[in-house]
Amino acid sequence: MDQEAIESFRAQARLYKHIFNYVSSMSLKCAVQLGIPDAIHNHGEPITLSELVSALGIDPTKASFTYRLMRVLVHAGFFSTTKVNKGEEKEAYVLTPFSKILVKEKINCLSPFVVGMLCPAMMMPWQFLSDWMQGTKKSPFETANGKPFWDYMDHDPVFKALFHDAMRSDSQMMNLVVKDCEQVFEGLNSLVDVGGSTGTIARVISEAYPQLKCTVFDLPHVVANLPTTGNLNFVGGDLFQHIPSADAILMKLVLHAFGDEECIKILKKCREAIPTQGEKGKVIIIDIVINVEKDEHELTEAKLFFDMLMMVEVSGRERTEQDWQKLFMA
Ligand SMILES: C[S@@+](CC[C@H](N)C(=O)[O-])C[C@H]1O[C@@H](n2cnc3c(N)ncnc32)[C@H](O)[C@@H]1O
Fold it and tell me: In the UniProt entry, which residues are flagged as the active site (predicted)?
């Protein structure tokens, strides 16, 4: 084979890998839906294929398919294999750092994020991205699902539950850091978590700082029927209209879901909601910052994927430090 042919075949393999990248994410979703990370974790030791099939309640006639699913997931690094001796030497599966954060009993379990982000309503809009680029007025999400993202959620209870469960699991990760952020919360008497979903992060904060009165502010259909507990309460409303007053406003992964003009409007509403004199009066933003120079390649890739996700689903964007500065100075 000449050099050009070798290069073409290599390029073909790489291209096919990218074309079929969804196989990796959809196989992962399948593993989560089957409960594979939990089954391996609960087994307490490396689990063989037949033990896994039995633990999952899968019909033994499907064992060879389970083997193929596990093979691609091991190849992707979600699980790994080791040898065990059960009369004869066999291959057995173990969790890797990737799948350890998919185990349900772990506080930082991201399984709901896998299922929510890969549900049909989130996947279908990608089919309409090029149409939108070429001039279709409606966003890809609206073309695919009939309504803009936040309106659609009010009309599809299954999607709403999947999405907010995904957000809940992402916010649970904050458990790992909130207690170390005393300097952020000290001196504050009240805090409003704007776009706070069903209150996971506000609950973490309210438990870590019991003196702080925490309010979760989100769309009325999101917070309807969520009960006040201790120093945590819920208020429904529209962040473009009015944000309840507090010493501090928190927004986690809210501004990235909106374009620059909308963000400026939201930040102005935040300004109106906080005191303008003294120590208090701050807006705490937890969001993505693209930093191609500083971040590892994989982290940048994840952030750029989020950027595309925001474009396709909600007309938002991820921002560099300079982009954020421009917003704050506007
Ligand atoms: C990407 S989610 C982030 C949720 C949460 N902060 C978290 O990180 O888990 C954005 C949130 O903003 C809320 N939201 C969107 N538009 C809103 C509006 N106009 N007024 C109030 N909340 C809104 C959504 O319901 C959703 O809970």
Answer: 256
| Contacts (Cβ under 8 Å, ≥6 apart) of 140 | 125, 126, 127, 128, 129, 131, 132, 312, 313
Is 105 contained in some domain? Answer: no
Average pLDDT, the chain: 95
Domain boundary among 45, 70, 100: 100
Give me the domain span that covers residue 278.
171-329
Distance 212 CA to ligand 1 centre (A): 21
67 lines ligand 1 (CB under 6 A): no
Q: In what order do the strands lie in the sheet containing 47-48?
A: 47-48, 88-95, 79-86
Of residues 179, 240, 173, the one with CA closest to residue 209? 179
Ligand 1 pocket residue status of 139, Cβ below 6 Å: no
Residue 279 has pLDDT above 70, yes or no: no
ipTM associated with this complex: 0.99
Judge if the beta carbon of residue 242 lies within 6 A of ligand 1. no
Q: Is the pLDDT of residue 159 over 80?
A: yes
Q: Estimate the crossing angle of helix 63-75 against helix 49-56, to 10 degrees.
A: 110
Largest CA distance in the chain: 75
Q: Using a CB cutoff of 8 Å and minimum separation of 24, what contacts does 231-240 make?
A: 231/206, 232/199, 232/202, 232/203, 232/206, 234/199, 235/192, 239/194, 239/195, 239/266, 239/269, 240/265, 240/266, 240/269
Q: Could you give the number of structural domains in the chain?
A: 3
Amino acid letter, 18: H
Q: Which of 150, 243, 309 should be mutated for ligand 1, with most atoms under 8 A from CB?
A: 150
Task: List Cα–Cα distances, 87 to 43, 84, 90, 153, 188, in angstroms.
Answer: 19, 9, 9, 54, 63
Mean pLDDT of 184-211: 94
Q: How many angstroms separate the alpha carbon of residue 269 from the centre of ligand 1?
A: 15
Compute the distance from residue 62 Cα to the ligand 1 centre, in Å: 41
